[in-house]
Amino acid sequence: MPCYRVDVAQYVLGVVGGSGIYDLPGLERVSVERVETPYGSPSADIVRGWLGDTGLLFLPRHGKHHALPPHQINYRANVCALKRLGATHVVSLSAVGSMREEIAPGHVVVVDQYIDLTKRRVSTFFEDGIVGHVAFADPVCPLLSATLADASAAEGATVHRGGTYVCMEGPQFSTRAESRLYRQWGVSVIGMTAMPEAKLAREAELPYATLALATDYDCWHESEEDVSIDSILQVLKQNADLARRTVARLARALPDPARGPAHGATRNAVLTARAELAPAVRERLAWLLG
Predict the structure, then answer these.
(1) Active-site residue (options: 23, 53, 112, 216)
(2) Which CATH number fits the domain that encloses residue 205?
(3) Is 226 a catalytic residue?
(4) pLDDT in tens, 253-263
(5) Which is the catalytic residue, given 23, 53, 116, 218?
(6) pTM above the 0.90 mark?
(7) How distant, in Å, are the alpha carbons of 9, 56, 92, 284 from that of 109?
(8) CA atoms within 13 A on the CB side of 254
(9) Residue 4 reports pLDDT greater than 50
(10) Pairwise CA distance, residues 61 & 69, whole Å
(11) In a domain, 7, yes or no
(12) Does the annotation mark 241 as catalytic?
């Protein structure tokens, strides 16, 4: 009797690609998913494929041709689309500036904390008729982050485990005074896209981790007269291949999502009585609350 492979993955890794990472070669059985969500369209069609026995969903955060600046990304649609397509984990690949001497361009930081300085971005699914407060003291999944750091180190990266990512609004880079202030806060890297992505992933009960790829020293550094797009792009090209190899290795060793802090995060977070939710609210959040 013939044996047929059933395409049901135990885990599905959602990968959100940042600057310089617009595809993920090496996928098998590839298809393209066009998803509409209650929050509009995600940044681009989502590429679905397989890495071994692990399902994978790839979404370029800035769009296929990098047309979306950080403050205009539809973060809610992106996270919702990944969840609806079956993601069990989400990893963010993000280009960042280094705020520490020891984190040189080309190094990788697997951060464990964030500071949110964004101003114009919707950062929750719980609004317009429903109130929810999820715990966010430890914003990344420690198991996923540890596995991600191991995978990157195994691919030859210089990895810094732990650190704080300060997320600015952009799209301009920091002033020198701002950069020096953030240094006083003890942050490790600076970027423009981790927030509200990490917050929304927690509300969606998705284990989340960031692979922060240092492209430059921010303007605090004596060698940095200005943050140059040209110099950033050179490092981005080097980092992109490392990030892709890291994802492929990570896909073979994903941890159990039920053991992370995102599991059941909304169970006791919603304060609005379920019986009192308006039909429109129920419909909007059916993908999350059932």
Answers:
(1) 216
(2) 3.40.50.1580
(3) no
(4) 999 999 999 99
(5) 218
(6) yes
(7) 29, 23, 12, 36
(8) 28
(9) no
(10) 9
(11) no
(12) no
